[in-house]
Specification:
Elements lengths: L14 E5 L4 E3 L2 E2 L3 E4 L2 E3 L2 E8 L4 E3 L2 E8 L2 E3 L2 E8 L4 E3 L2 E8 L4 E3 L2 E3 L23
Parallel strand pairs: 1-4, 2-5, 3-6, 4-6, 5-7, 6-8, 7-9, 8-10, 9-11, 10-12, 11-13, 12-14
Family: Belongs to the bactofilin family.
InterPro entries: BacA/B
Organism: Desulfuromonas acetoxidans (strain DSM 684 / 11070)
């Protein structure tokens, strides 16, 4: 769950959305691809890959596949992979499968393991005897 490896890619894919420095947005936002926040976002974010720069600030809940935080997040994060870089600050509940925290980063809150989803597979190839019943 926790890793100290610094071999991870800094950017999962090309950045498709940028909230520029000095820009403030309030509301809820759903995005696809990678989004970088250099300004301030107040509200809930849902998307694929989020990058919060050193000047970036998010006040609200984040739900994403991955998040790289150089800036500030105040709210709950539910992400598959979270990297908090030196100078990054996260205040809230973190739910993740993979957490990386550099020396000099700040965490204030609770960290929970994101559980893997279980899927029921219907195996119709089993015979009645295999299923524990007796065919008459």
């Amino acid at each position: 769950m926790f890793s100290s490896s610094s071999n991870k890619k800094e950017t999962p894919e090309a950045i498709t959305t940028i909230l520029g420095e000095g820009t403030e947005v309030t509301g809820d936002l759903v995005f696809k691809g990678s989004m970088r926040i250099d300004g301030q976002f107040d509200g809930n974010l849902t998307g694929d890959h989020l990058i919060i720069s050193a000047s970036g600030k998010v006040v609200g809940d984040v739900s994403a596949k991955s998040c790289i935080c150089h800036g500030q997040v105040t709210g709950n994060l539910s992400v598959d992979e979270l990297q908090v870089k030196k100078g990054g600050n996260v205040d809230g509940t973190i739910t993740t499968k993979d957490l990386s925290v550099e020396s000099g980063a700040f965490l204030d809150g609770e960290v929970k393991l994101k559980k893997k989803e279980l899927h029921v597979v219907d195996d119709k190839s089993k015979t009645a005897k295999d299923k524990g019943t007796v065919a008459k």
